[in-house]
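Subject: SDR family oxidoreductase structure
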Amino acid sequence: MLLQDKVAIVYGGAGSVGGAIARAYARHGAVVHLAGRTEATLRDVADEIAGAGGTAHVDVVDALDERAVDEHVERVVARSGRLDASVNVISDRDVQGTPMVEMSVEDYLSPVVTAVRSKFLTARAAARVMVPRRSGLILYFGGRFDWTVCRRFSVGGLGVMFDAVESMRRQLAAELGPHGIRVVTLHTGGLPETIPDDFAGRDELVKALTDLTISGRPATLADVGEVAAFAASDLARTVTGASINISAGAAFD
């Protein structure tokens, strides 16, 4: 299998994107450690993975807590013997729909601070155990932000957060590459499946995301999981410092 004997942590593993990645990793043979703040929802994903024949562990971890992140990575290595992939897709606490000039500074900075802090902490903890083995993947979710969205909808600090994470990805890739560690983000252009059914204007948003693509078929959660599995595999050993574009042409490189 593509990820046989590999070990991965998925921060935000109970969410729609994190769950999709965790399921794909387990399906391809990886031992998955689901990390998040709510045990019950993490357990649901772990039970589903186990029911399909995979292996998943559950750990309650606040990815914004420096000590908790460091200690968790140590436990993962003690439990599974290694760490091959660290995936961070936790919620970034963004506030949208309010014009920038009407927002509080706390709401505007919330996604930026949350994303940068959590992704720095999880990447640093992973790198410290990956460097001695001279291999590993640090994977984020986001990619280049389409600022034309702001003409139609107020996104708050979300776009700044995306750009900040991309800068972090480049810096980490440059520093960790000589140690055999790859750093990648996935860029989807939007996932209709993640939009709640009760979200006002859901149909219009799904149509907008679909119309942006060339194929008329936006990426699905299953697509995200499979590409994430490829990124963590030895087949992607030359892919680092890059954003993998799975936007179906919604964004051109």
